[in-house]
Design a protein that fits this description.
Blueprint (H helix, E strand, L loop, with lengths): L3 H124 L6 H52 L29 H19 L11
Length: 244
């Protein structure tokens, strides 16, 4: 039959071991919960950042597609404007050519008329019965001089018409160049593809602590039991405490 000291020592040791084990398990459980909570928050934040990055990427793509469509429409209008400018240049050139042709046609008819009048004047002089000599020759030369002056005036008028035509053509070319340059300067640059969003850094999860060993609690219980037994049995001199 065991002594009272052993009984008290055993009770104290077991109680201390259980209390210590419960305290260790409570602390370990709190640490595990804290680690799990921290990892859950890190995972949630990472997933949210991934969703935000994905949204930004999609938004950038949509904006870029809209810019590309607007740029395509703008360039279509640009080439249409160049076509219109060329048509206007051709129209102005055709009008200038018609004016020059009219001048040549007018000069040709006027030249034929003056030539016929000169021939009739010469015939009139010759048919007038004027005696041959210096007077007749002078009259004929006068008619020819008048015809020459008229032809020289016609040539001068045609040269002026050619000069006006060249100036008009140069003006038409300059107007087309100015219109083309204005359309080119108003043209926007082709939109560049947007840069990619940086992916969020993956979280570094914490590792939960290992479950505490029972050996420490057992040893603490044994130490407490021995200490209590020793305290109880120390009053009996010469007798071990576990025999008291």
């Amino acid at each position: 039959m065991c002594s009272a000291a052993i009984a008290f020592a055993a009770i104290s040791g077991v109680g201390t071991a259980m209390a210590d084990r419960q305290a260790q398990m409570a602390q370990w459980s709190a640490q595990v919960n804290a680690v799990n909570r921290s990892n859950a928050i890190a995972k949630q934040n990472y997933q949210q950042n991934l969703s935000i990055t994905k949204y930004r990427e999609e938004r950038k793509g949509e904006v870029w597609k809209a810019k590309l469509a607007a740029s395509a429409a703008e360039r279509s209008g640009f080439f249409k404007q160049l076509e219109i400018n060329q048509l206007e240049r051709d129209r102005a050139s055709t009008a200038n050519q018609l004016k020059l042709r009219e001048k040549y046609t007018e000069a040709a008819f006027e030249g034929q008329t003056k030539l016929a009048e000169s021939i009739r004047a010469s015939g009139t002089v010759l048919a007038s019965g004027m005696p041959a000599g210096n007077s007749l020759l002078s009259e004929v030369n006068q008619v020819e001089r008048e015809l020459g002056l008229l032809q020289a005036g016609t040539r001068a008028g045609l040269e002026d018409a050619n000069t006006v035509f060249a100036i008009s053509e140069y003006g038409s070319d300059l107007a087309k160049y100015s219109a083309d340059s204005r359309a080119t300067n108003e043209l926007s640059a082709t939109p560049l593809a947007p840069g990619a969003e940086f992916a969020p850094l993956a979280p570094i999860y914490q590792k939960a602590p290992s479950k505490p060993s029972m050996l420490g609690s057992i040893m603490k219980g044994i130490s407490t039991g021995v200490s209590v037994g020793s305290g109880i049995g120390s009053g009996v001199e010469g007798t071990p405490w576990w025999k008291v």
